Structures are given as C-alpha cells and as structure tokens.
Amino acid sequence: MPKKDQKFEQALSRLSDIVETIEGGETTLDGAIKLYKEGLTLAQNCGEILGKYESEVLLLQKQADEVFTLIPFDQGVSAYG
User: Fold this and answer.
1) Of 9, 28, 63, 69, which residue is 20 to 30 A from 77 by alpha carbon distance?
2) Is the pLDDT higher at 4 or at 24?
3) Is 65 exposed, middle or buried (0-12, 13-18, 19+ CB in 10 A)?
4) Domain limits of the chain?
5) CB 15 within 8 Å of CB 58
6) Dihedral sign (CA 11, 16, 19, 20)
7) 32 falls in which pLDDT band (50, 70, 90)?
8) How far is CA 19 from the centre of its chain?
9) E strand or H helix at 2, and its extent?
10) What is the predicted pLDDT for the residue at 31?
11) H/E/C letters for each residue in 5-60?
12) Which residue has the higher pLDDT, 67 or 34?
C-alpha cells in the first residue's frame, strides 16, 4: 500500500509497475483489482505532490521590450490560456 510520506519518484515507479503487471496479465482478477485500487491512491498522491510544487514553478515570460521576467506558474498559464 502507498505511504503518505512516499516520494513522488517512488510512487510513480510503483504506479508504473502496477500498470505493467495489470496489462501483462500477470495476476488474478482479485489481484488486479487490489493493484488497481493501490494505483488510484498512488495517482492521487502524485497529483497532490505535484499540486504542492506547481505554485513554486516559475516561467520566463518575454515582455514586449525583449526583457524576460520570472512569473509564478499559475499566473503564466492564465496569461497564455
């Protein structure tokens, strides 16, 4: 089962292993269901981890005067989208 303090890379690696196992048919139906549930939890944890870091990511935005400025990720996305 996934741990709350699990690192993103560890969770993503485990999620990849789960997908391979299920797609490869290397488990019973009961085992596949258990792995699927674990995978859902891992995916949610990965999403939460990424959400925490999303606001810390900065984008370089080129201004009209050819000067680049650092802006928070969430502001940069709304400026382009």
Assistant:
1) 9
2) 24
3) exposed
4) 8-80
5) no
6) negative
7) very high
8) 15
9) none
10) 97
11) CCCHHHHHHHHHHHHHHHHCCCCCHHHHHHHHHHHHHHHHHHHHHHHHHHCCCEEE
12) 34
Amino acid at 49: I
Q: Residue 17 corresponds to which tokens in the numbers above?
A: 């292993």
**Token pair for 61:** 């935005």
Helix (H, G, I), strand (E, B) or coil at 4: coil
Higher pLDDT among residues 53 and 30, named by residue: 30
Q: Determine the straight-line distance between the first and last CA of the chain, rounded to whole angstroms.
A: 38
Query: Please, which residues bridge with residue 62 across strands?
Result: 68
32 CB-near residues (< 8 Å, 6+ apart):
21, 22
pLDDT of residue 50 exceeding 80? yes
Nearest to 45 by CA among 16, 15, 4, 10: 4
